[in-house]
Every structure is written in C-alpha cells, then in structure tokens.
Amino acid sequence: MVKEIEVEPITRLEGHGGMRVVLGDDGKVQDVQFNIQSTRFFEKFVEGRYCEHIPRITPRICGICPIPHHLTPTKAVEDAWGVQIPEPARKLRQLLINAKQYSSHLIHFYALTAPDFLLGPMADPALRNVVHVINKMPDVGAMALKMMDFGQRLCAAVGGKAVHPIAAIVGGMKKALDEDVRDKFLKVIDDQIEMTKKTVDIALKVIDDYWDVVANVGVVPTYYVGMTNNGVHDIYEGDIRIVSPTGEKTDYAPQRYLEALGEHIPEHSYATHMYYKPAGYPEGIYRANTLAMINCADKMATPLADEALKAMREKVGTNVIHHTFAYHWARIIETVEAIEMIATLLKDPDIVNPDCKTLDVQPREGNGVGITEAPRGLLLYNIWSDADGICKKCNLLVATNHNIAGIEKTLMHVAKQVFEDKALDGLKLPDPWIK
Amino acid sequence: MVKVAFWQNSDCWGCHQSLVDLHLQLLPVLPALEIVYWPAVVDFKYDSLVARAPGEIVVGFIEGSLRTKQDVEGTKLMREKCQIIIAFGSCSCYGNVHGLANQWSKEELVRRKFSEVESIADGSGGEPTQHVPGFEDKIVNVDKIIKVDAYIAGCPPRSEQIFGAVGFLLGQKPFPMNDLAFCNDCSLNQSGCLLDAGKLCYGPITSIGCSLKCPNAGNPCVGCMGPAKTVSARASKLNDMTKNLASASSGDKKTSNEFLSLFLNVPLMAGFDLSADILKQVKKRGTPETPLANLPPDTVSIASNVLGFLRDNRDLIDISNVCDTCDRIIGSKSTMTKVKRDYEGLPNLEDCLIEQGYICMGPVTRAGCGALCVKVNAPCSGCYGQTEWGVNQAERFAETAIKGFNVSLSKDELLAQVKDKVGTFEKFTLASRKGG
Lengths: 435, 436
Known about the structure:
The structure holds two protein chains of two kinds.
Chain A: E1 3-7, E2 17-23, E3 29-36, H1 42-45, H2 54-57, H3 66-81, H4 87-119, H5 130-136, H6 138-159, E4 168-169, E5 172-173, H7 179-209, H8 211-216, E6 223-229, E7 232-233, E8 239-243, E9 249-252, H9 257-260, E10 261-264, E11 273-276, E12 286-287, H10 290-296, H11 303-316, H12 326-346, E13 366-374, E14 377-385, E15 391-397, H13 399-420
Parallel strand pairs in A: 6-12
Antiparallel strand pairs in A: 1-2, 2-3, 4-5, 6-7, 6-8, 8-9, 10-11, 13-14, 14-15
Chain B: E1 2-8, H1 14-20, E2 33-37, H2 46-50, E3 57-63, H3 69-81, E4 82-88, H4 90-94, H5 106-116, E5 150-152, H6 159-170, H7 213-216, H8 235-242, H9 250-262, H10 276-285, H11 297-312, H12 372-375, H13 393-404, H14 411-416, H15 421-425
Helix pairs in contact in B: 1-6, 8-11
C-alpha cells in the first residue's frame, strides 16, 4: 500500500508550506513535494503604482527581510531611470542591509535553528522552540536577544523603521544618521563583536557535535546562485554568480538575468521552481541562501569572516560545499562579515553626511534591474517604467523562491536516505545540551 | 499560564518580528504564556489546533490577509477555538497592500504570476492545483468573515503596542509598570498641574518612565506608559472627573480617547468595535473582572468610567491622527504650490511635509505609530488605516490638506496632479473600501 507522510504546516519558517513524502509498497520513495501554499501577487499589483512607491509596498513581501525588499526595487528604478546616488547614500544602504543581515541571521540561528541542535532532533515538539531555549539557557538566550536587538535598532535608526523601512528613495537616502545616534551604536560595537565571537564558538561546537550529521545527511550536489562583487562576497551590489556542482563559476550582470535564471511552474507549489537556464530543468536546479553565497565567494569582504571561510573549506576539504547542514555554518560566517562591515561603516564619516540624496532624478521610460543578496538568497527586481515613472510591469525573483526547487531536491535526497537506506539508524548524535 | 495562539494568513511575518523585537522585554512575559499554536516559532501542527476544544484558547492573534481558501478556513477555526480574537496588524484589520490586488480579477493575477512572467522558460505555466488551497476572488478584512474582539492596526504595529495589548488582555501586567505614578516625575507636579486647573490628565494612574514630552509642552498625560502599581494623590480627583465625561471639553474627550488606545491598548478603528468582552463586563457589573481587576482600585474605576463613556458615545470622539504625534511645524514658512513626487528634491526636517509639497497621509491616518516615517523625511503612507471610512479617500485628503495646511491649490488641481490615486491614498486599505 502506498503511504503518504504529510507535514502540515512546516514550522519555524516565515511563510506557508507543507511537505509530503509518498512511499511505495516496496518502501521506496515515490514522490516528495514541498508545497508552498500562499502567494500574494505583488508582481501584479505594483502595476500602475508610482515607481518610487514600490519600495514602500514590497517590503511587505517579508517581515524578516524587509530591508532588501526596500533597497532592491529602489536600485531597479534607479537603473531604469539612470540615476546615480551619492556615496554617503551607498554607505548608508550598505550599513542598513548589513544590520538586517546581522539580526536576521541571528534570529535564524538562535530562534529557528538552535532548538533542533540544543534539544536534539528527538525532543518533545512542545519544547523544541526558542522559548524553551531561553528558559533553559538564559545566558545564551539573553546574549542572543541583545544581538538581535542591536541589529534591529540599527535597522530602525538608518531605515526609519526596523520592519518595513522607508528611508531609501530613488536618488539616495531621505536622511543620514544623526551623530548622537551613531555614537550610541559605536559605544556598544565592541561588545557586539565579542558576542559574535561567542556565537561562532557555540556554532563550531554544535557543528563538531553533529559532525556525523553534517558530513552524511543531505549532501546534495546542485548548482548555486548568489552574488559577488568581482568575486568578493557582497550583499548590496555586484553581479549574479552561478556555481556548477563541480565548482565552475559564471558571472552575469544583473541586466542579463534572463540568460541565467529560469522559472518552472510546478503543479504543487505557489512558489515556483528556479533553475540555471543553460542546464535546463530539472538538471539546472540550484540552491540559494548562505551556503550558496559562500560557494560563490572567492573570498569574504572582511578579515575575520575570510579566516572563517578558509577554515570551513579546509575542514570540509572542498571549495564547493554540498552539505545542507553547512548552511548554518555559512550563516555564521556571513554574520561575522556583517558585524565587521557594520563596525567599519559606523566609523565612516559619510554615514552622518547629510549629502545623501541627489536632486538629479527624472523618470524616463525603460526597464531596470536591481539585485541584492537578502538573508535567504538572491533578490532580483525587474521594473518597467513609463515616461512618467509609473510602473508598467514588474518581475520579481524573490530570495526564498530561488531555493524552493533546491529544497525539494534536497528533501528527496534525504527522504531516500531516511526511508530507503535507513541512514539515520547508525548516526552518531551527541547528548543534547538541554535535556 | 494563559493559552495563546497565533494564526498566520497570507502575510509577511512582520507583526511577529515586531513582537519579537521586544527582545529582552519578552523575558518576563514568556513564562506566563502557553503558546499552543505559532507555526513560525513552535512545532505544533494544524491537527493539534483542530483537536483543541471550542473556546479552550484564551487569546488568538490573527495576522495576514485573506488571500487563500486556507486563510479563510484557518481564520474560522481560530474563532471557534479562541475566547478573544485580535485582528493583529493592518493586513487583518484592512487587507493591507495585498488589497491593491482587488483591482484585478483572480484570473488576471494568476495569469501574470504563473503564465506571463518573463523568466518562465520551459513552456510550463498555469495555476498550480495540487496540494495547494486555491485563491479567494477578492481580499476582505478579517471582520467580514468572523467576529473580531479587538484590533491592533499598524504595518507592523509598534512593539510597545503589541506588548501593552498582550499585557492588558492577559491581565498579567507585563508592560512597563513601575511602582510610582507619572505625577512623581511630572514637571508640573509642584506648580501648574493640569488636573488642578480642571483639565483631564491621566498622570495619576500612569507609570513613570517616559521623557515627559507631554507636560513639558503643557499637554496632559494620555497614559502611554501603561498603569503604575500605585496611584498618586490626585487619582481620586481624576476619578471624579471621569464620572462626568459627558460634559467634558472636546480636548478632554480627545485625551480620553488617546488614553483608551494608549493606556488600555484598546485600538480604535472603524466601527469602534471595542474589545467586546471587556465592554460587556463593564456594562453588566460597572467594572470588569479581568484584567483590570489586577490594577489599583482607582485605576480600575477610572478606566471603567472612560470605557463606559466611550461605549455610549462612540461618535463623539475625534480619532487622533498622525499629525497629532508629529513634531513638524504646520503653518510653516513653506506652501504647497504643486504636488511633488517623493523622489523630487529633499525636504527639510522642520516644516510639514504637505506644506513642502508632498502627499503625506498624516492628517487622515490614525495615530499610534509615533510618526516614525516622517522623522526620517518620508511622508506617511497611511499604514495605520484611515481616521474616517466610507468616504472618497482622495477627496478627503485634498479637503483636509487645503483646510488645515498651507496649500495654494484647489481640490481639483491637487487631485489632478496625483496620477496613482489608489496607490497614494488607499495603499493599505483598498480592501476596506465600502462596497468592496
């Protein structure tokens, strides 16, 4: 008899998803589905809006990563209208997106991921959550909250609001940081760097504890998509980079995205399946998000993060890492880069320079592309403007969406490991930190 | 332990992020809550919610817009399982930006997303139908399909607002409730007390700890810090005054209105359907049993007076708007002579943005946000919802702006210069427009 295992909903994520595994009589995995059950049609209802209003609408795509959804359409409209922004605005935006990267990665690591590892995968579902972690490990919990708080406050200071920011405008930023506000963040930046180092220690310990899992479960060769700035890890500006399963790297300027990124409409998910066009579907299915970014990067942008990347590659033994559980590790490396970037930018006088908006902004007909790397993957906006600067059409390739097909492919791989190869039976699991 | 559940309709998680943004302040609250459903954070599955007894959960938060059939089904399930339902955030209250999709048919939306977009590259396309819920034709407010007990508007609602509402509804006093009342800190305590001068001021029952912005500017305390553990000597005077709100001045009524929304965190919006359970208690017994019962007796009495008055006089109250909380100068040296687009120029930080030529929705948008957008030079875009409903919002904005601000345009001139009226005036509330 065919057996269907249903998980409804998938928890500890932002969004609406379920999954299904179908097992045949012979115990073989017949089908795996990752069902995304909602979509809101942003690409349609921004039609007819003023192009400069789109960055005030689209942050509502994601409440955890509204900042990339604020900055990326702004960049797309700037591309369409041929607008150059002043250097202080560029730095403020870099500061803003790194503050978001920091708080988002930490909420992911501590609130969404950590319960699995600290309580162990066999723990009671009623307890396997961040509330229990905070109750049982109050010191770690308080540290995590202080770090997220720093990131969110910095987002609010630069972006105007932490959730659904408003400070970016076509042509730059509406306001620079006030000096006294900047000083408050500078005062605690060294503490934050120390807490980040402690977080790295915790993460490395978890990875060591679970090495058997990291090295053996869900090691799935795929393509990867990310962005780099001439090969250097960058989340605000650069080119699209594709890495093949064997490590070949190909770069595409954002405006050439249609040569690289293809969309397949599945029958069982409102989030579409993305793939690398030259390789076709499904062969070209790629993954996005932290590990993909790490695989794309020749090097990290900051010294501590680059050291951490080198250490990771040395330990795994390859430059392209297909280990799904290493996503958490990659996330921590990106967190280190974010706090180093924040520290550098906070000391830069440009971020308090009020000359952060060009007055030379004129709508014109054309289409523009903007990309950034959101905490959950490459984010791309293609906006068509008419001569009055009203949006005629929009195409969105959203961060998590880049990863859906890759996640489903990984689920299939892991389902086979679990149900066909019984690979979990002999796995070495550590004693949980929280019992 | 109080059982709470969070239901997410088609949303962005931003309301939850805003809740989580309380960070360290959450620590004392968490042990009081038994979270029985919150997919974003805890691992309970849908079946476990279905298995709950009717009314077993005390408070249910409903976030997100009703875009899919699953959203509608889950919302109805929550109503069955929860004693109090809170419409949490502007999606739930007004439909939010997703309501802009109501300008197109479902077929047009589906066609663009699943068939027409430029990146579809392998000949696939069409609406997915397998193990997905299907879409509603139009987005409507949550209170169109179930009874809602309280509303927390905002996109997202401010963290403090959520915190206060949770505290109020749970009666757990988790909000910043210091021992002493506001009067102890007040710059007007020794001389110039507003209460002594016969003006309503909620300082005697409000917690200390704010920046004293209101009394420093000669304005009364509206209670935004929440209740204090003890009340000041002037509490009985305040109690007497609130017994006779019917004859209060319009300024005092406005203060009381703000008090209700800020101190009690009963959000005021269209239709004024207050947290019904509390109102019912007031009606039946004169005072509610919970959660006000945990507060000092004078506080309970005063809050009940205000609740009672507002219950009977819903139309008398002018709802505060964003301008009431904005520091910019109205009647400034600037005048709107043409409507500027947001990308044009760079406004100064002192003068009213409308007077500098921009469409700022402040005067027609309900307060609660603290004018955060305006502080970074971005005009208000209305995410807390309109202060008045059932009218043409574009015309109302134009009339309000011309009446109260330096604007040298006629209504027709002003509106003719705004090409995207829906996106400008009803970005967050199109789904709430009367008649759909």
